[in-house]
Design brief:
Blueprint (H helix, E strand, L loop, with lengths): L1 H26 L9 H32 L10 E3 L5 E3 L7 E5 L5 H11 L8 E5 L4 H14 L2 E4 L16 H20 L4 E6 L2 E3 L3 H14 L3 E5 L17 E4 L7 E4 H7 L8 H6 L1 H4 L3 E5 L4 E3 L9 H5 L23 H13 L3 E2 L1 H6 L7 E5 L3 H11 L5 E2 L2 E2 L7 E5 L2 E6 L13
Helix pairs in contact: 1-2, 3-4
The structure holds 2-acetamido-2-deoxy-beta-D-glucopyranose (NAG) (5 copies).
The site of one 2-acetamido-2-deoxy-beta-D-glucopyranose has 2 residues, from loops.
């Protein structure tokens, strides 16, 4: 921003200077309406040379800004043909952000980051949907309506659900599901957007948050086996990810926590939306239907909210150790078509199963430290859980799918070494009895 101002100031100064020189020369010949043609030519050439120099200077300043600015304000339009041959100019794709809020006045922390990091408000309009009718939070959000074109909508239904005794403690989850349903209906049915990026009010985002979603948009829309792009890696703790900030994966596990979905998916799942635990419901095969999400090696969101419906212990144990990416990866300038199923599957299978197989004891002892990557095999649910605990990765399943798994394979880093925790090469499908 500062550099842009400098550029403008320099241009303005030079333009003024040109005008002044011109006027001075004109005044030296007050009697003549037109100066002699010789003088005029000299003057012309002078001005043109000056303009050329100015343009050269301007371009120098621009490239200087390009090199040093870690947040490019403008993208040269990247044009990627998708499978149908359609072409996306990614700088023209509008990706609205739906921020789900309730009663946390610290929503300004999330909003500030979204506003600071988005390229333009036209490309990334922000809608804050607020439940809970919490006045102090509403007042915080209202300030952004005035200054940053944020749209503030309020979930109107504040009734409590009638729950039996054993479900009473889950009231918060029922309200969240109701809020999501209402808010997503607003985005897709009222505002008629074709895509949405969903975040919650307790998320920090990485510098390339918007770049990541822009660049993966063509994958989302052209690969029918991809139904979401997520900013989250469930095993993305400090020390458990590599430094490869540009590395992305396909994941059979729906991660949530900053994710993008298309309207057509909402038209499919919205009408049968559940009354509670919506994320586990989405993970169920009845909804997922073998579709996958794109997820990063290093998380593009992390949560700062300790207080919340699902947090507390889970926050202390897992969420607070998540590594938030701090680099800007120019994803829109990269060829991401390796993520398309037909490219990814054969490549990923080779990558994993060409990796030497070792025992978990060998991983732990460091006796295979000289190898870049190792593969550890599991065959039963019990074996998965016991080994996962030893290696420090998430050990739970949802609808039979381990967190972050693709074709059963969990990829993570252990003491600097890439580990593929994988089923046998002849793996066919998940067993929903693994819970
Ligand atoms: C600076 O970057 C912008 C956008 O990426 C590009 O249009 C422009 O040509 C670049 N300028 C120079 C001098 O590299
Ligand atoms: C959010 O607002 C509160 C109260 O106005 C302020 O103290 C805090 O610094 C703000 N946080 C950020 C990240 O701007
Ligand atoms: C409000 O929410 C309750 C519980 O989810 C539901 O039963 C009721 O129909 C809703 N009311 C309206 C007007 O949508
Ligand atoms: C919603 O957008 C679609 C294109 O995405 C368009 O065909 C349709 O007419 C729009 N509907 C309304 C009600 O604006
Ligand atoms: C992009 O990568 C795919 C393989 O993943 C390759 O087939 C294609 O040729 C690449 N496209 C360009 C423009 O490099």
């Amino acid at each position: 921003m500062r550099r842009r101002h400098v550029v403008s100031a320099v241009v303005a100064v030079f333009l003024c200077w040109n005008v002044i020189i011109y006027l001075i020369l004109m005044l030296r010949h007050p009697g003549k309406v037109i100066p002699p043609s010789m003088e005029l030519d000299i003057l012309d050439t002078g001005i043109q040379n000056q303009l050329k120099q100015n343009l050269a200077l301007l371009s120098k300043l621009q490239s200087l800004r390009n090199e040093t600015g870690n947040k490019p304000k403008t993208h040269s339009p990247i044009v990627l043909p998708d499978r149908k041959g359609d072409v996306h100019d990614l700088s023209k794709v509008v990706l609205p952000v739906l921020l789900i809020a309730c009663d946390r006045v610290t929503v300004n922390r999330s909003l500030n980051q979204l506003i600071r990091l988005r390229t333009t408000k036209e490309q990334f309009p922000i809608i804050v949907s607020q439940d809970c009718a919490h006045k102090p939070t509403a007042e915080v959000i209202q300030k952004y309506v005035v200054t940053d074109n944020v749209v503030h909508i309020m979930q109107p239904n504040q009734t409590n659900m009638e729950l039996n005794k054993k479900d009473k403690k889950f009231l918060g989850y029922y309200k969240i599901a109701r809020h999501y349903k209402w808010a997503l209906d607003q985005v897709f049915l009222k505002f008629n957007y074709s895509t949405v990026i969903i975040v919650e009010d307790d998320l920090d985002i990485s510098p390339d948050f918007f770049e990541y979603f822009s660049a993966t948009y063509p994958i989302l829309t052209s690969d029918p086996s991809v139904w979401c792009v997520s900013a989250w890696n469930d095993n993305g703790k400090n020390g458990m990810v590599s430094e490869e900030a540009e590395l992305l994966y396909r994941s059979d596990f729906f991660p949530g926590l900053g994710w993008m979905m298309e309207r057509k998916t909402w038209l499919e799942i919205g009408p049968k939306w559940p009354i509670t635990f919506w994320d586990d419901w989405m993970r169920h095969q009845d909804q997922r239907k073998d579709r996958v999400c794109i997820r990063p090696e290093i998380c593009r969101t992390s949560t700062f909210g300790k207080k919340g419906v699902s947090k507390g212990l889970y926050f202390e144990k897992h969420l607070k150790h998540i590594k938030l990416n701090d680099q800007f990866v120019a994803f829109t300038k990269k060829n991401l078509s390796y993520l398309m199923k037909e490219n990814y599957d054969p490549w990923f299978k080779r990558l994993v199963y060409d990796t030497p197989e070792v025992t978990v004891a060998e991983v732990m002892s460091g006796s295979k430290k000289h190898l870049k990557a190792l593969r550890v095999t599991y065959t039963t649910k019990e074996q998965f859980k016991a080994t996962a605990k030893k290696l420090g990765i998430m050990d739970d399943f949802k609808a039979g799918v381990p967190r972050v798994a693709y074709r059963g394979v969990v990829s993570f880093v252990h003491h600097g070494q890439r580990i593929y925790f994988a089923p046998k090469p002849d793996w066919q499908k998940y067993d929903i009895k693994w819970t």
